[in-house]
Amino acid sequence: MNEEIKEEIKEYVRQMDTNYFREDIERRLEAEKEMRELIERTNLLNGGNWSRKDLSDSIKIQKKVHNINNLVLPKLVGNYYYNVYFKGYEKSEEEFIKENPKYDGGSGHSGVDLENFSRDLADLFNSEGDDFQDAYIKFSKHPGVGKAIISGYLHLFDLNKFPLINGASVSGIEKFIGKQDHKSLKNYAEEERKRQNITQQIKDSDFRNYLAYLNIFRELSTLEELKNYHYVDSLLWYVKDHYEPKVKNVDMGESEFNSPVVNETESLNTLDSLSRDIYFELDTTEEILSLLKLKQNVVFYGPPGTGKTYVAKKVAKHIVGGKENNIKLIQFHQNYSYEDFIEGIRPESKLENGTHIIDYPIKPGLFKRLCDVAIEKPDEKFVLIIDEFNRGNISKIFGELLYSLEYRSEENTIDLPYSKEPFYIPDNVYIIATMNTADKSLTRIDFAMRRRFAFYKFNVDTKVLISWGIENGLVLDSLAKLINDVNTEIEDENFFVGISFFMRDDLSSNIKYIWKSEIYPYLEEFFIDDLDSHSRLERFRWENVKHKLKDLIE
């Protein structure tokens, strides 16, 4: 952080209303006192275990100094105790189950294992150096525990040592120093690793980012105007909504989809690299990314073989910064249901008192699980790829999520029909769907669903095939001309033959089989109702086209 930025921050603090700091700091100091009293009363640092109430109280204390997503609370304390301690439910657990049978038989959230949670939190408080890294990573594995929860505990345990690092404080500091790229964060984290006497290499990307911002905030706390980390967080919480940065020569970071992620090569996240990977012009790549940024839900549609799924995977990998675990791919079909996608009742066999019984718990679907993880990791991006989008009954699969697709925030939660739990699609989740326009049996997409998606058309571009051939040492001009001849005969662009049929290893030795087993049968199907189909098809039999591909097969 250069001196110009420091002076700007100091000047901004001097101009702020001192009453704001006084009132806000008093509230934060009171929360710190309550957390220390809770830790001491329960003897947590010396082997004591927290109860569900203690855990709930600790979260309530955290909520006095920063926002905590309510959707993670049932995961932490369990569904019943969440209703007791956060919603004022006063009946027994048995009554709760009777009133909410969906939670019977082990369904829903049981909460963290209190003994392990208490031990791991105490280890986090007591550890230093390499042990601190191990304790941080271990504690982060508990259900519902993310960076904000961890940082909240550490901050209220020792405000002189640990700042509060969450989405609000990061947004605040970026108003001054700009969005930090991978290299900058890595340098900050490395500096802090040494300062913390951590001799091992950093093992976890979340921990790396925590160290990076810990180092940045440490610089802020050295300013005379900011007396401790309570003041730092109070300032950043304020500026995230009220401060407009001055024009200055600082690195404001890369665009939203070009912000590299830890542990991945920087080239992975550049537009040039992505454009080369998908064989698109830079302008086309930028257009696709802009659509995703604008709408967050995009459908790639076009004839078969135009690379829709291939591009979807590459774009998704670009968005998540190479974190392939943050990408989920599914394929819709006629039997795919809301229960598969969001949640539903699933029969489950289990052994109870020596007897096998069938239970019917509520199980989350693939998309709900992805959203739950995304909510816990707001600093990361997640992508769902839906292949063959309109092969399923789309309206039934998405159900009441039409609203959530358009309005993405915790303030716009909906209650799910089975579990009755609040749900929303977080802002860091993107959907890329693919549609084959050549399949005549596909389900139509209604206008309500269409309004929630942007549509990007994939055309057959043989120039892409030629470029791919050059990169792979092949001359494909004659093949490109043949594809164009076929598509001229087809006439309807929704049914054109695409280029990805041919973008394969060992194309020269396999072109005969590709044509005879894939291209020609496709043409037979397309011309099946054509009175002149025989003469049209005869032109494109392998025996009648192979002479046009001499430069490829010889």
Automatic annotation (TrEMBL):
InterPro entries: AAA+_ATPase, ATPase_dyneun-rel_AAA, Methyl-DNA_Rec/Restrict_Enz, P-loop_NTPase. One of its GO terms (molecular function) is ATP hydrolysis activity. Residues 294-459 form the AAA+ ATPase domain. The lineage of its organism: Bacteria, Bacillati, Bacillota, Clostridia, Natranaerobiales. Gene3D superfamilies: P-loop containing nucleotide triphosphate hydrolases. CDD domains: AAA. It comes from Natranaerobius trueperi. It comes from the Bacteria. This is AAA+ ATPase domain-containing protein.
